[in-house]
Amino acid sequence: MCTVPLEVKVTMVMFLSVHSTVFHTNRQKNDRAHGLVEGDLYIGALFSIHDQPSGSTGLEGASIQCGDIREQYGIQRAEVALQTIEKINRNKNILPNITLGISIRDSCWYAPVALKQSLKFIPGLDPQSTRTTIGVIGPGSSANTIQVQNLLQLFNVPQIGYSATSKDLSDKTRFGYFFRVVPSDYYQARVLVDLILQAGWNYVSVVNTEGNYGASGMKAFLSMLSDAGICTAAELSVPQHVNIQTNPVFNTTVWELQSHKNARVIVCFCEGRTVRGLLTAIKVNKMDGLFHIIGSDGWADRADVIQGLEETATGGVSIKIHSSEVSNFDKKYFKLQPKNSISNPWLEEFWQWRFNCSLKSNNTAERVCSGKERLQSGYTEDYKLGFVVKAIYTLAHSLHNMQVDLCGNSTAGFCNKMKPFDGKLYKEYLKNIKFNYKNELVLFDANGDPPGHYDIMNFQQVGNNSMEYVAVGTWNNGTLNLHRKGEKISTKNNLILNSMH
Length: 501
Hints:
Layout: E1 35-37, E2 41-47, H1 71-90, E3 100-106, H2 111-118, E4 133-137, H3 142-152, E5 159-161, E6 178-180, H4 185-199, E7 203-209, H5 212-227, E8 231-238, H6 249-258, E9 265-269, H7 272-284, E10 292-295, H8 303-306, H9 310-313, E11 317-321, H10 329-333, H11 347-355, H12 385-407, H13 423-431, E12 435-437, E13 440-442, E14 453-462, E15 466-476, E16 479-482, H14 497-500
Parallel strand pairs: 2-3, 2-4, 4-5, 5-6, 7-8, 7-9, 9-10, 10-11
Antiparallel strand pairs: 1-3, 11-14, 12-13, 14-15, 15-16
C-alpha cells in the first residue's frame, strides 16, 4: 500500500479546580476560546470541540474556521473531564493539599490547530502564564497525536492518549513521552484477522482511510492476513478530508469493490466518516445487501455513522474498544443549562446547535430557545468517555506517587522538592503506574500500551421496527469469544451466519 499523509485532529484544553475557578470566555488576540479552572498544577486537555475545517487548509491558527460543534467528541469529553477533576480534588486520598487544575482547548480535529493550541502547554513559551502543566491528554486522532507528541517531548511534557490507537505510537525511540489507555491497533488488526478466520473466509477486499490511523492499521492487518493465507481482491484507500455528498471517491470505491464479484466481504480500517461515505455510496448506487462490512473502532457503535443509513448498515460488524461506564455522568450532563456553566465556553454555541434555536431574542425568523430543551432527547453517550477519565486518573495517581516520594508525606502539598516540576522524572512514575479503575488494573507495558480488550458489535434489527448495535462477542488478550449471552450475528445475505454460529 502507498504511503499517505498524516491525519489531523484538533485540541482543547481545560484547567479546573474545585476551590477557585477562573473562566475565560473572551478570546485574546490570535487565540481561541478555552476553559480554565485554576489549580496548583495543571492537566492540559485537547478535545475536538468542533469538527475539522472545510476549505480553509491555507489558513493558520485562530483564523481557521472550524466546522460544526460536536457533542460526543467534544462537549461530552469536556464535561466528563471537568467532572473527573472535581472528583479528584474532593478525594482526600489522592493529592491532598494539592489542587489539580485542567485547561481545555479545541483541536478541531485538525493538526495546525492542535499544534498551535499545544504551545499553550509548553513551560515558558507563554510569558503571561506561570502555570505548570504536568501532562497533556489527547488529542483524539492518531495523526494529530503524533504531531503533538513530537512537540511535547522536546520539552519533557508527558502525553496520555485516550483515543489514539496507531501502532506507530508504541515506538518509544520516536515517542518517548507518550502513553495511552487504549490498546494499539496491532491488537485490533489481530481481532479483524481472527474474525475472518473464524468465519472461514479466504478472499476479501480491504479499504482504509488515508492518514496514520488507517494506513498503519491496514499495514499490520495485511501482514497478518498474508501470514494466515487469506487473499485480498482489492486494497483501496480513501482520502480523509473529503465531502461525502460531492466528492466522487466513494462512488468510485464501491464500484471498484463491486467489480470483484467473488469478494463480497469488505474489511474497513477506517474513520467513521469514511464508513459513512461508503454506506452512502452503497445506498445511492442501490447496492444494499451486496456487501458485508467489517469495520474497525472508527465505526464502533457510533450513531452518527449510520444515521439515515440504518437499512444499509444492517448486518455490519464493528470493533469497539472495551470501556467501563462512567458512573453518574448522564445525571450531571442532563442538568446542564447554557446559563449555569461557568467552565465550558462552548456550551451556549452547542445548545443553539443541538436544539436549532437562538438563546437571544431578536427580530429574525430564528426560533428562540424556550428554556424547556433537555439533553435527554436524542442522547447517545460517547463510549470513549471512560478513557478520558482513565487518562486523567493516570496522571493524578502518578503525580501522587511522585509527590509522596519527594515530599516525604502526602499532606505536604506541592513542596519545594517538586519545584521546578521535573517532567523527565514524572515520566518514570508514569512508566511504573499501577492502580485499579472500575475493577480493571491500569498499567503500561514497555511500549506504554495497555492490554487489548474489545467488544464485537453487530448492527441488527431488534424487534419489529428498531435497529441497534448489539454486542455479540469479545476479544480479550488474544481470545475471541462470540455469541456472548446467546446473541446471534445478523446479516442480510447470510455471509457470516453459518460460519460463526
